[in-house]
């Protein structure tokens, strides 16, 4: 089961479709199939710790690659801004700050909405005591 997303990636790339989407779909299929719920406890514990370690390593690799790409992106953006007389460097930085602020507002709004949604639909009050129903 561990190799299924990799195999689906290779097969999808071979036939000319998106390998990334195929790997994601394979991972979601494994999760939805419930195969791991029927596995022995020792296997589930090993799988969970392995996935946690791989997730940590891959997240670290993504941030490392992003950090390696960032100086080149910044350098080429500044060079393009200096070459174009219609673009001011301060406009680029202003755009970055505005986009960042908009993303933070969207994130805050989403989290606030989801908190209100979860409180409204997943909790019941019983004699002034909150109770979470888990089915």
From TrEMBL:
Short name of one Pfam family: Na_H_Exchanger
Keyword terms: Antiport, Cell inner membrane, Cell membrane, Ion transport, Membrane, Sodium, Sodium transport, Transmembrane, Transmembrane helix, Transport
Subcellular location: Cell membrane
GO annotation, biological process: regulation of intracellular pH; sodium ion import across plasma membrane
Domain of life of the organism encoding this protein: Bacteria
Chief location of this protein within or outside the cell: membrane
Record InterPro entries: Cation/H_exchanger_CPA1 (IPR018422), Cation/H_exchanger_TM (IPR006153)
Residues annotated as transmembrane: 6-30, 51-70, 90-112
Membrane topology: Multi-pass membrane protein
GO CC terms in record: plasma membrane
Domain Cation/H+ exchanger transmembrane: 2-118
Molecular functions (GO terms): potassium:proton antiporter activity; sodium:proton antiporter activity
Protein name in UniProt: Na+/H+ antiporter
């Amino acid at each position: 089961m561990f190799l299924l997303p990799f195999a689906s990636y290779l097969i999808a790339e071979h036939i000319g479709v998106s390998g990334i989407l195929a790997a994601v779909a394979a991972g979601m299929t494994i999760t939805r199939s419930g195969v791991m719920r029927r596995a022995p406890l020792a296997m589930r514990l090993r799988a969970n710790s392995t996935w946690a370690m791989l997730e940590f390593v891959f997240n670290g690799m993504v941030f490392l690659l992003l950090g390696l790409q960032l100086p080149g992106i910044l350098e080429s953006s500044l060079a393009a801004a200096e070459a174009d007389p219609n673009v001011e460097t301060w406009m680029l930085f202003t755009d970055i700050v505005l986009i960042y602020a908009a993303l933070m507002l969207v994130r805050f709004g989403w989290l606030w909405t989801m908190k209100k949604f979860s409180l409204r639909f997943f909790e019941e009050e019983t004699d002034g005591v909150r109770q979470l129903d888990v089915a």
